[in-house]
Amino acid sequence: MPATEPLFPTTIAGSLPKPAWLAVSNKLWAPWRLEGEELATAKDDATLLAIKLQEDAGIDIVGDGEQSRQHFVHGFLEAVDGIDFDKRVEMGIRNDRYKAMCPTVIGPLRLRARVHAREARLARAHTRKKLKFTLPGPMTIVDTIADAHYGDRVKMAFAFADLLNEEARGLAADGVDVIQFDEPAFNVYMDAATTWGIEALHRAIDGVACKSAVHICYGYGIPANIEWKATLGAEWRQYEKFFPALAKSRIDQVSLECIHSHVPMRVLKLLAGKDVLIGVIDVATDKVETAEEIADVIAKAAEYVPAQKIIACTNCGMAPMRREIAAMKLEALARGAALARQRFD
Question: What is the pLDDT of residues 222-247, one digit of tens each?
Fold first, then answer.
């Protein structure tokens, strides 16, 4: 059974850098270096390494590091019928913040089989710690794919929510303790997030027998996102527009970006009743945080969120980072949470 969590348990947002023998390093949408069964075996090996890296660093709630996925959205889409990966369209995603070559929905959506059973079961068999698994959220999926079938963004999102629910039920049966839906699109389409975005998440978690979480950040530490953040002003106010609706939702946990951001801490009060994953590791810089910096962020969060509800996390996924930097940041995360516990006691 997973061990009992300490105060301020630690976890990652989702992705970790992939080994150079598995995929091209320091890159999003990184091409695989292998194929066929060799690739499948290499993904297994990388998943086990990701778990070992987290355990060695002292992380309390571990994940698979998304080692089997080229991208956090498209890794799910590859198992869906009704999508043509050969019919790629260049799209401006996240409200045209950056462009990506996206596959096209050409017919009714259906899962061919379980998507992440292999890596989830492998991870569950090789750790005694609590296990978190990430899936893309419905709104973010429809913002990362072209549509030549549904003709309606909301209708397509709910179709994906049904598929996500099917996979989430399977993950819970595999022994996953927390299923997190990644919804960076919530920070872009705030009005839609409060209405159909949250309702689509409710569809995705319906009947799922484990904790649910939603991760909403300001994106990977890539130039397009860094440039966008520079336009957001002295205070980043996106969260306050939909946190009240999230507080009323059936989602158990909310993950957000904090350290080195301009998010006013007072917005955390809007998440009353939820577990809050506080981003205390900056994924947009190679500078490794000190334990004191991390403990300070946790202490500020504890002014607005009960300490027992705080989980220390990374701001976002670490996929594009150098592996050695990511490892040092994970160790810093564990040290910072430990220091915060000492201070709180």
Answer: 777 677 777 778 888 889 999 999 99
* CB contact at 8 A, 334 and 89: no
Report yes or no: 131 and 105 within 8 Å, Cβ to Cβ.
no
Distance between CA atoms of residues 29 and 12, nearest Å:
19
The answer to whether 125 touches 118, Cβ cutoff 8 Å, is no
Its sign, for the CA torsion 274, 10, 133, 102, is positive
The predicted structure's pLDDT at residue 1: 39
Question: Which three-class secondary structure state does DSSP give residue 271?
Answer: helix
pLDDT recorded at residue 2: 47
Domain range for 200: 36-344
Q: Do 99 and 89 form a contact (C-beta atoms < 8 A)?
A: no
Examine residue 163 and state whether it is found in any structural domain, yes or no. yes
Question: What is the total count of domains within the chain?
Answer: 1
Residue 3 is assigned to a structural domain of this protein: no
For the record, the structure tokens of 37 come out as: 């069964």
Low-confidence ranges of the chain (pLDDT < 70): 1-3, 220-221, 225
Residue 325 contacts by C-beta under 8 Å, 6 or more apart in sequence?
A: 286, 288
Looking up residue 103, the CATH number of its domain turns out to be 3.20.20.210
DSSP for 136-192, please give it.
E-HHHHHTSSEESS---HHHHHHHHHHHHHHHHHHHHHTT-SEEEEE-GGGGTSHHH
pTM tops 0.85, yes or no: yes
pLDDT of residue 244: 97
Positive/negative CA dihedral, 178, 182, 187, 193: negative
**Would 17 be classed as within a structural domain?**
no
Q: What gap in Å lies between CA 305 and CA 243, rounded to an integer?
A: 14
Q: Is residue 51 part of a domain?
A: yes
Q: Give the whole-angstrom CA distance, residue 154 versus residue 199.
A: 10
